[in-house]
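We treat protein structure as text, and this decision shapes the records that our systems exchange. This encoding replaces a full spatial description with a residue-level series of whole-number codes. Below, we set out a record of this kind in full and without editing:
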Amino acid sequence: MKLYYYCSSCKKENSFNTKASNRFELQEERGNHINDRCNHCGTQVKRRVNRVHAKPDIKIVSIGLLLGIISTIFLWNLGWIATLTFSIPILAFSYASQQANNFNKVMVDDK
């Protein structure tokens, strides 16, 4: 999952990858604060775990779109073209969106 935070100096959005699916796992992995360097201005940024937010991962959506195109090519003669072509990318986006919403809903207390 890709997580985002804003730099306090340049106000631009930075991102980092993690395997944590919620803030509790992120807190166990990185501690109460995320210490990172801004990709734009180079300032050392220290953000609380609750100030980090998730967005749907575009890689999952693009894989769903690719699978929809591949299934269209193979199932052209069966008549299920419209159903599979449109449902696979929509399902992929809904999965990624639900994963991001689940991360953003839960807040943690400081340890």
In short: The radius of gyration is 18 Å. Residues 1 and 18 are 6 Å apart (CA to CA). The longest helix spans residues 81-105.
